[in-house]
Design goal:
Layout (H helix, E strand, L loop, with lengths): L1 E5 L3 H12 L3 E6 L15 E4 L5 H6 L7 E4 L4 H14 L4 E5 L3 H9 L4 E2 L1 H14 L4 E6 L4 E7 L9 H4 L5 E8 L2 E3 L12 E7 L3 H9 L1
Parallel strand pairs: 1-2, 1-4, 2-3, 4-5, 5-6
Antiparallel strand pairs: 7-8, 8-11, 9-10, 9-11
Length: 215
């Protein structure tokens, strides 16, 4: 895969190092030459100094043949301009922008530009750790609105059915591991003490699971 990364800060450099290590063709663009020092010695891609939304710089990066572009600078405005230019002008198939402002990120997602929002992601993850301590987060989806969590069934839930835990549009029990054997439960499946549940839920709904456990 041919990937362009605009911004060689901590996120951009880590992404570039990882992709390069996986043998993807990577080009990193940054306005500050010193930023390239964050790249590892094993990095095998190209480095270009310039403004990430400058079309001449993007063309030097061979954006016409790029499979993907990530805008990871510390400026929301720059990242959006880069993402829109890549998506609409150069028709890059996969474009992702890092956006710090959650409200702005939501607007651009509606316009078809995938975004990663570190502030919202971190806040939601920390909230889960603080408020829903009995749940172990295994993955965060989108910008943190949905989480996959793991729960070992306590006494409070033993004997109840999956239907009593699941909430349409909010909480889905995707898998159950019982005595080392995994299965996809039905709504009528009764929970047993020690069952391990793998749940996908809205972050805003995790407190409902905690209430069931508490009661």
């Amino acid at each position: 895969m041919r990937v362009i990364i605009v911004g060689c800060g901590r996120v951009g450099s880590d992404l570039a190092n990882t992709l390069s290590g996986e043998r993807h063709e990577v080009v990193v663009i940054d306005k500050t030459p010193g930023s390239f020092s964050r790249l590892s010695r094993e990095y095998t891609g190209r480095m270009l100094t310039g403004i990430g939304f400058d079309r001449e710089i993007l063309q030097k990066a061979d954006i016409e043949s790029a499979d993907a572009l990530a805008a990871t600078t510390d400026s929301d405005n720059v990242n959006i301009v880069v993402a829109v230019t890549a998506k609409e002008t150069f028709k890059v198939p996969h474009v992702v922008a890092r956006i710090y402002n959650p409200q702005a990120a939501e607007i651009y997602r509606r316009e078809g530009i995938p975004t990663v929002t570190p502030t919202l992601w971190a806040a939601n993850t920390m909230k889960t750790m603080l408020v829903t301590a009995s749940l172990s987060a295994t993955a965060t989806l989108g910008s943190g609105e949905v989480e996959s969590v793991r729960l070992e069934v306590p006494k409070a839930l033993a004997g109840r059915t999956v239907a009593e835990l699941a909430k349409p549009g909010e909480i889905v029990v995707g898998a159950l591991v019982r005595r080392g054997q995994a299965l996809i439960p039905s709504a009528e499946t009764k929970l047993e003490l020690g069952d391990q549940l793998h749940i996908t839920a809205l972050v805003s709904a995790l407190s409902k699971i905690e209430k069931l456990i508490a009661h």
